[in-house]
Design goal:
Length: 163
């Protein structure tokens, strides 16, 4: 199945990788990403200032400890959510960069290959495939390390698998 999948990629590599690179370029860090991250940073900074002010109010004796405690718990909850959102956003941006680099590596690897595969290559398999998911008895999904996924099927005839 790997040989079949590899040969399909190899045959259509220019269009396939070109389309995928274009998709990744469109997803690349945009002004919208920068604005979103800046807004999250602003909100986080505001909450940190509110937390400091809350502690100062309590320290001066202007507020009840239980009230400050409940307000602080709400601040921490919101702050944690915003930090997680910012972290997820940054991880997505980094993931985009990684997929592009791996796509370029895949292109180089395919160009170095001199034609279709005739037999399984453990080296190529390890360089290309992240994981294989068995969708059905006769369907496998190859997930490549650059983010692409290919579904391959085969038929069963009298107990024998035919690729």
């Amino acid at each position: 199945m790997f040989v079949k999948m590899f040969n399909a990629i190899y045959t259509d590599r220019a269009k396939l990788l070109g389309d995928y690179k274009a998709k990744l370029e469109r997803e690349k860090l945009t002004g919208l990403d920068n604005e979103r991250i800046a807004k999250l940073n602003e909100e986080i900074e505001k909450l940190i200032k509110q937390e400091r002010a809350l502690f100062l109010i309590e320290e001066k004796g202007y507020a009840d400890h239980n009230l400050v405690k409940s307000e602080h718990e709400e601040l921490v909850k919101t702050l944690t959510q915003l930090q997680a959102e910012r972290s997820d956003w940054m991880a997505e941006i980094n993931n985009r960069d990684t997929r592009m680099a791996r796509t370029l590596e895949l292109g180089t690897l395919l160009e170095a290959q001199r034609g279709n595969l005739i037999e399984f290559s453990d080296d190529l398999y390890r360089k290309l495939v992240e994981k294989i998911v068995v969708k059905e008895r006769t369907k496998l999904i190859f997930h490549l390390k650059n983010g692409l996924a290919f579904e391959e099927t085969y038929t069963l005839k009298r107990g024998h698998d035919i690729f």
